[in-house]
Automatic annotation (TrEMBL):
The keyword Transferase does not apply. One of its GO terms (biological process) is response to arsenic-containing substance. Keywords: Arsenical resistance. Pfam families: LMWPc. Residues 7-141 form the Phosphotyrosine protein phosphatase I domain. This is Arsenate reductase ArsC.
Length: 152
């Protein structure tokens, strides 16, 4: 199988500051050799939430170099898979050129967490762990599919 061009997976959220960046970092770590993983938002916040960066740093994934992007930046690219991680992005999501699949896996927005930083981190960790479970399973499924194609 020709892996020269990795399918573009676009992970969308409204603000592109927390959930979509955590999902991007986790999926890139789990399947970056198979997929070109990017994230964007329908109304980008203009920054990546520092506690999202910290939550991923705790599991050995560095997203400190990420930046908030608008989903329109990808309208001219061939997006193979769109994954929305919040309800608003799912509703606002356009069809992208070449889009073959669309998934919606909603997660709570940790940016709405209140209290001390320690209390907010509990929410960020919970959402990170939920995202990690779903996106690592997705990556494992992609690997299984490719392995079956190569054997068959």
């Amino acid at each position: 199988m020709n892996r020269a061009k990795k399918p573009l997976v676009l992970i969308l959220c409204t603000g592109n500051s927390c959930r979509s960046h955590m999902a991007e970092g986790i999926l890139r770590a789990a399947a970056g050799d198979l997929l070109n993983v990017q994230s964007a938002g329908s109304k980008p916040a203009g920054y990546v939430h520092p506690l999202a960066i910290k939550a991923l740093e705790e599991i050995g994934i560095d997203i400190s170099g990420h930046h908030s992007k608008h989903m329109d930046e990808f309208l001219t690219q061939e997006v193979g898979i769109v994954i929305t991680v919040c309800g608003n992005a799912d509703q606002a999501c356009p069809m992208f050129p070449g889009q073959l699949q669309r998934h919606h896996w909603g997660f709570d927005d940790p940016a709405h967490a209140t209290g001390t930083e320690a209390e907010q981190m509990l929410v960020f960790r919970r959402v990170r762990d939920e995202i990690k479970m779903v996106f690592e399973a997705y990556a494992a499924g992609r690997r299984d599919s490719i392995a079956q194609l190569e054997v068959g």
